[in-house]
Amino acid sequence: MTPHFDQLVAEAESVSVDGWEFSWLDGRATEQRPSWGYQRLLGERLGGVRAALDIQTGGGEVLAGAGALPPLMAATESWPPNIAKATRLLHPKGAVVVADADEPPLPFGDEAFDLVSSRHPVTVWWEEIARVLRPGGSYLSQQVGPASVFELVEYFLGPQPPEVRRARHPDDAVAAAGAAGLEVADLRSERLRTEFHDIGAVIYFLRKVIWMVPGFTVHRYRDRLRELHEQIDREGPFVAHTARFLIEARKPER
């Protein structure tokens, strides 16, 4: 068992976690997808506008796969490896990638865009989104909901307090959108089954989604990882549940 564990650990520690696609997990982990199909919805919205902004675009993979882009397409990203990857992917499609610290203000003028989008943003600056939207424009976003994959989080960190488990609740997003002057047109939430089939998948996930277990390293959690590896060998995949919600909000016409 030990060589098997060490091999999985070494492999998962060495693989790149740049970008925001998870193809390395193919065959090693599975995640149900939300029924609404965010990338398809994004493609439909992009097809009806002339100027759009994708915030926290990651490596640009979702935007690049959404179909034809409008005449003016901008994307922001803060992490240098992702900036480079998104630039390589999106420039040939006519989109400009702007390095941005994910702090207000957004580096664009007032009422610059018909559509603002973001998939799984870490932070949402609602007032800035409202500022850069033209009257009648909309914000489309798929976000991580409360207590997402907390079976895994609490395996390493222990039980979390109620206020932590409730964080990122869609009701709070609705309230924040309203406070910024936006009208919520659509809100949907789902909890979806996720399975980790080996300890390498767990390590890769926690290296990539760094806010799930802050400060995660294999060295720091090696004993706990070994226990989880043995549990998966005995009982099968480790099951968790992701929380996702879709929100679409519009800026009123004048």
Task: Give an overview of the whole structure.
The model has no long low-confidence stretch (mean pLDDT 96). With 254 residues, the protein is of the alpha/beta class. Helix 1 (2-14) packs parallel to helix 9 (199-208). Strands 1-7-8-6-5-2-3-4 form an 8-stranded mixed sheet, with helices on both faces. The chain has helices at residues 2-14, 38-46, 61-64, 80-90, 126-132, 150-157, 162-166, 170-179, 199-208, 222-235; strands spanning 29-31, 51-54, 72-77, 95-99, 113-119, 133-144, 183-196, 238-250.
Order of strands, widest sheet: 1-7-8-6-5-2-3-4
Largest sheet: 8 strands, mixed
Rg result: 19 Å
Structural class, by secondary structure, is alpha/beta
Order of secondary-structure elements: HEHEHEHEEHEHHHEHHE
The N- to C-terminal Cα distance equals 66 Å
Q: Treating each run of at least 4 consecutive H or I residues as one helix, how many helices?
A: 10
Give the rounded overall mean pLDDT. 96
Helix content: 25-40%
Which consecutive residue ranges, at least 5 long each, have pLDDT under 50? none
How much of the sequence lies in strands comes to 25-35%
Query: What is the approximate shape?
Result: globular
Overall number of strands: 8
